[in-house]
Amino acid sequence: MAGRRPADLVERVRQEVVGCARCPRLVAWREQVADEKRAMFRDEEYWGRAVPSFGDPRARVLVVGLAPAAHGGNRTGRIFTGDRSGDWLYRALHRAGFANQPTSVHRDDGLRLTGAYVTAAVRCAPPKNKPTPAERDECLPYLEREIAALPDLKVVVALGAFAAGIVAGQLGVSPRPRFGHGVEADAGGGRTLLCSFHPSQRNTFTGLLTEPMLDAIFDRARVLAGLPTV
């Protein structure tokens, strides 16, 4: 990858993700959802493919979730876009100075990220939001290549225990920390794994995750990344 611009490297991964059809179960499910649609989105054309990452190729902070939502990213074609989890995430990124606006509703809405890049461990919406171990492993090379393609990366924010386990493996964190909100682990090379509860409705509706808690994660990420506070 020597001599290639970060933007070129991450764009190549994005294009490969969009064309990916490695997992028959996930391909069938994402296409079924796109065909049947949810009633409130019946007039929309669903993306129905693997969902690429999104953000700044010079990011110091990488945010990793579990997988696209069936009627979120699988509908809009942008990660964490068009669902409640994305609403929480991008509002927090905006408050922390990483996003130019607090909303993310479709891939042409003008949203831009500065200093942050958003991705997922699995790139297709899985049935019941549960990818199999084999499906997880098929997607690992994409994340590995993205991490390698972000030359300024200092912090990886893992949203949820599933993502935290994946990231710890990719970064070679040993021993792996026990997952918890706000848990940090030295990943070597000046990088840090920072764990957060996932902004799923199960966590936000029950109060397990609050907006101040999520704000604290991204405020801490700025500090660890050597970015000025906002």
Topology:
Blueprint (H helix, E strand, L loop, with lengths): L5 H13 L5 H13 L17 E2 L5 E5 L7 H4 L7 H12 L20 E5 L12 H17 L5 E5 L1 H11 L12 E5 L2 E6 L4 H5 L5 H14 L6
Helix pairs in contact: 1-5, 4-8
Domains counted in the coordinates: how many?
1
N-to-C span: 34 Å
Structural class: alpha/beta
User: What is the topology, as strand order, of the major beta sheet?
Assistant: 1-3-2-4-6-5
Helix amount? 25-40%
Question: Can you give the mean pLDDT?
Answer: 97
The biggest sheet, with number of strands, parallel, antiparallel or mixed sense and barrel status, is: 6 strands, mixed
CATH superfamily: Uracil-DNA glycosylase-like domain
* Percent range for β-strand residues: 5-15%
Instruction: Give the CATH level 1 class.
Output: Alpha Beta
CATH topology annotation: Uracil-DNA Glycosylase, subunit E
Count of discrete alpha- or pi-helical segments spanning 4 or more residues: 8
Please give the number of β-strands.
Answer: 6
Shape descriptor reads: globular
Structure description:
With 230 residues, this protein is an alpha/beta fold. The chain has one domain: 3-Layer(aba) Sandwich (Uracil-DNA Glycosylase, subunit E), CATH 3.40.470. 39% of the residues lie in helices and 12% in strands. Strands 1-3-2-4-6-5 form a six-stranded mixed β-sheet, with helices on both faces. Helix 1 runs antiparallel to helix 5 and helix 4 (84-95) crosses helix 8 (211-224). The longest helix has 17 residues, at 133-149.
